[in-house]
Amino acid sequence: MPDLNTWLLISPELILTVFGLLIIVIDLVGREKSHAVLPWVAILGFILAIATIPYLAQDQTIFAGMYAIDKFAFFFKAIGAIGGILTVLISIDFLRTRTPAKGDFYLLLTFAVLATMMMASSTSLLMIYLSIEFLSYMSYLLAGFLREDKKSNEAAIKYFLYGAVTSALMLYGLSLLYGISGSLNLADLTKQFAASSDLSVKALGIVSFTLLLAGFGFKISAVPFHQWAPDVYEGAPTPVVAFLSVGSKAAGFALLLRVALTAFPTFHAEWIALLSVVAMMTMTLGNLVALQQTNVKRLLAYSSIAQAGYMLIGVIAANVSGASPFMGLNGVLIYLAAYLFTNLGAFVIVVAIENATGAVEIPEYAGLVKRAPLLAALFVVFFLSLAGIPPTVGFIGKFFVFGAALREGFLLLAAVGVINSVISVFYYFSIIRAAFFEEPKDATLIRVPGVMTASVAICAALVLLLAVFPQSLIDLAGMGMGMFGIARP
Amino acid sequence: MPIDFLPILVMIAVVAAFAAIALILSGLTGPRRPTRAKLEPYESGMPPFGSAMRRVSIKYFLTAVLFILFDIEIIFFYPWAVLFRQLGLFGLIEMGIFILILLVGYVYIWRKGGFDWD
């Protein structure tokens, strides 16, 4: 029977559960006026969840080895919660005009963040599957949240169908793994693989990793499991897209890293080969298709596919022993943190413009600099960061990821990554070109609510500050490499 | 090891063979005197009417899903009831929290009109 101490170790999760229920109770009991408090209740929950993280003991598994309490999980829990806060901030104004139901939205979002936290800590096949499904169902509901909007419905259905297929593939892989080891624990799996020289075990191990990759690839939107992304990004409510592009992706990477590094070290060479192909396809396809897009949300969808490709380079180059600052693993963590503020910042601007004018096509962004000078200027900052150009934090992320690839000798991957970064500049700046060098059709100023301005300013400040003073981020990512079951130098 | 699953494979083969033999034998040896009533599809004793392809209101789906939800809730009570004495106060509090969470869901469905037919 778990004692009280065990429960304290999952206090971020418990806090989010309580706050999720609190939101629904306020929504049901409170009057219409009290509903304005709901987003702030959600934000308070996220802040409390982050605040407990430094006080938790580390490097152990609880609940019979199903759940890891380690710094690696803490890092991703913090990313999920920060993503949640920023998503709530941009949702307030977005939802006001579009739907009467609000409590449900914040409940689903709180539980989606809860699911990302569970994914970050899962060390058992059962927990991995349940937490991924938990996040998936919350995401489907959020994607289809605007019930009157046909595109939102389309997004939810397509997301669900792709999700169901990849989830079935992943479940098959999990069942094979259980068949090999007779245990649900990732740690037992490692021992089984290391002890066995049986060729059929080796073959099953590689096949099941490939099947698991379907589930993880769906979450991080890696080619060939990316097809849902453009339609969902275009149709789903934009704040939800912002969350999916960051929170959901980060959680997918958390699971991919944990499973690859703790359960499959025996097949290091094999999964590196597999992921290298996936990474190159993801970067190249994402960037080349992004060049053709005219809808800003679809463009950001392909951009986020491409970004997943860069991060996969870090996963491939992940090396947990050695003293170099380029460990691959910390590169992924730095990249994810950078991507969190950059992409969410870009989405705040997209939401602000969509709310004020309904514009989502690049030609409609013409002359943005005259209509909303601050937004246009900050757009440049975020796109510089997405393209990985200094002095932005996106550069720091790419620097550590590509640096690790070079150190580990993946020259081809690094080269493909750099070429793709150059291609990406072109489509990011097609938006900037429209915003700065074309005449607006309608020159009225765009009014942006204070909450939005504040959140976009915070994101932009972090994107620039973390680039100029990257040491704290590098230190945090270095700590975040502490994964249970892996000895560190 | 894959070889450990051999009994399951044998089981599948036995079950498939049993089903096939039973169907084939009764088809070959049994008497066949079809009447109108015998050939109708069985619908729990109701006389069938209309086409099976007609559209059914989504309301039935909601009812079915809600039923499954609370049905599964009851299933969780069984292991608790069996181990009630061993789990003691801890189990009671745990179950109280479990029911409380579901109660919030129940009130949610109620207030949002999930139980209203129209």
Give an account of the 3D structure:
The complex is a heterodimer of chains A (489) and B (118). Helix content of chain A is 74%, strand content 1%. Chain A has 489 residues and is mostly helical. Chain A has a domain of 224 residues. In chain A, strands 1-2 form a two-stranded antiparallel ribbon. In chain A, helix 7 runs antiparallel to helix 9, helix 13 packs antiparallel against helix 18 and helix 14 crosses helix 20. Chain A is globular, with a radius of gyration of 21 Å. Chain B has one domain: Methane Monooxygenase Hydroxylase, Chain G, domain 1 (Up-down Bundle), CATH 1.20.58. In chain B, 69% of the residues lie in helices and 0% in strands. Chain B contains four helices and no strands. The longest helix of chain B has 28 residues. The chains are: A mainly alpha (489), B mainly alpha (118). At the A-B interface, helix 2 and helix 9 of A face helix 4 of B.
Secondary structure topology:
The complex is a heterodimer of chains A (489) and B (118).
Chain A: H1 4-9, H2 11-29, H3 38-52, E1 60-62, E2 67-69, H4 71-96, H5 103-121, H6 125-143, H7 150-181, H8 186-195, H9 199-220, H10 228-235, H11 238-263, H12 268-290, H13 296-316, H14 329-357, H15 368-371, H16 373-387, H17 393-407, H18 411-437, H19 450-468, H20 471-479
Antiparallel strand pairs in A: 1-2
Helix pairs in contact in A: 2-3, 2-5, 3-4, 3-5, 4-5, 4-11, 4-14, 5-6, 5-11, 6-7, 6-11, 7-8, 7-9, 7-10, 9-11, 10-13, 11-13, 11-14, 12-13, 12-18, 13-14, 13-17, 13-18, 14-16, 14-17, 14-19, 14-20, 16-18, 16-19, 17-18, 17-19
Chain B: H1 6-29, H2 36-39, H3 58-82, H4 84-111
Helix pairs in contact in B: 3-4
